[in-house]
Structure formats: C-alpha cells, structure tokens
Amino acid sequence: MKLFKTIRFLCLIFLLISPEILSAQETSIMIRVKAKDAKFIGSSMGGSRIIVKEHVSGRILAEGYTSGSTGNTDRIMKDPISRNIQLSDDQTAGFIAKLSIEKPVFVTVSAYAPIDNSVKSETQLWLIPGKDITGDGLILEIPGFKIDVLSPQLHESIGADNEIEIRANIIMMCGCPLTDGGVWNSNQYEVEALIYKDKKLENTIPMQITDKASTFLGKGKLSPGNYEIAVYAYDPVTGNTGLGKTSFIVN
Q: Are residues 229 and 243 in the same domain?
C-alpha cells in the first residue's frame, strides 16, 4: 500500500510539471567581443559585460563577463583570413551563455566594453533548442580607442608662465599598445589635443608618440583661464576614432 501511494504521488507530480520544463533543452552560445582593427576584449581589460535578453519580453536569460586572453596576434592580425577559418583558440576571451529553452527564441545580445562599459555593441539572432553556437561563436565588435589623459590632471592649477605638457595613454579597445612601427603603428594615427577655453575652441596641439608605448605628448603655452582638453585619435584607414577629456585651470 505504501509503495502504491508513493507511485501515485510521483505520477501526480509528473502531471503537474509544465510540459515546457520537460521539453526544455540546454543550449549554449559562445559570445566574444572584438576591438575594431584589433584583438579580443578579455581579462586584461576587465572583460566585456554581456547581457542576453529575450527580445519580446526583455527578460534577461544570461549575463556575465568575457574572460581569457586577447587571442593570437598572428592569426588575428597578420595571417590571411578565408571562409571558415577560426580566429579564436581555447584561451581566447569569451562568455558562454547557457540557456534552457523549449522553443526557438529571438534574443538581443548586448556587449559593453571596455572596463568602464563606455561603448555598447548589440545584435539579435534566433536560438534553436539544442543547437549550440560554438567555436568563434557570436562576435560583437567594439569600435574606438581607449584614451586616458594623464596630464594635465583633472582640476589641476598651472601657472601661465609654464609650458603645458599634454600626455595621454592611447590603446586599442582590447588593450593592445600603439608603438612606432608596430602592429598598431602610431604613425598611422592622427592624434591631437583640442584646446577649449571657456567652452570655445582656442587651439589644437598635435601629439606624437614618446619612447614609452602608447604614451603621446604635446606641448604648448596657454593664457590664464579655465580649460578643457579633448585628446582624440583618428585612423584614416579604418575610420576608427576615440576621445579622452580633462579640465584644468591656468592662472
């Protein structure tokens, strides 16, 4: 009798379980984020934040960060690329989203990078139950340069008699360095500081690479006032652009 009750109870539980849960299949999608004209964004840049949402409801199905290396430089940047050639390897940064779905679902995949989540890249696709997307997976591209103005420092006060040194660290969005004659050749890029005084453009100062990788320098004299500097990098070959800002006082 006890066995009969147990079986009857299990049958009842089985009937109450949603058919959707019974038929749901785990489906994996590899999501990678690649810097424009460069490599993959991974652990060295804090990863790229990934959010996978069901398009219609907006419900979050998976979220996390890419982790791993930026990938193989020769394979990504130097070797000829033909159809079905995989850019990534087992160490290359990515995020695996594992979803339990019982029917095809149309999703929106968003990537935010680099570490300060300053740029968003987004795409949409159908996911089919049990049909994994592996290998290179889904690759989203993040354009731009990551630019940090090192000097003048924010809100720094500088004497009018002093020559202003404008220094900026400029890297690709994956963290790859700019160097003289390197893979990311600093001579290919136009780098300038736009000098704004009281919100009006007063001058532009060209900036050149220093002996230190990714560090650019420009110099000039400024009259007393409140200033904002916008350092930009522009690649005339790819159209890639980036910008970094700081504000300071000359007295």
A: yes
Contact 36, 73 (CB under 8 A): no
DSSP-derived letter for residue 129 is T
Closest C-alpha among 134, 155, 132 to residue 228: 155
Q: Which helix (H) or strand (E) holds 55?
A: none
Spatial separation of the C-alpha atoms in residues 213 and 169, rounded to whole Å: 9
133, 154: one domain: no
For 71-95, write each residue's pLDDT tens digit: 999 999 999 989 999 999 999 999 9
Quote the DSSP letter at residue 1: -
pTM over 0.85: yes
Long-range contacts of 15-21 (CB under 8 A, 24+ apart): 20/102, 21/102
Listed residues 81, 107, 142: the one ending a domain: 142
* Closest C-alpha among 184, 187, 232, 239 to residue 208: 187
Same domain, yes or no, for 94 and 174? Answer: no
- Per-residue pLDDT of 203-214, as tens digits, reads 999 999 999 999
**Separation CA 62–CA 64 (nearest Å):** 7
Q: Is 2 contained in some domain? A: no
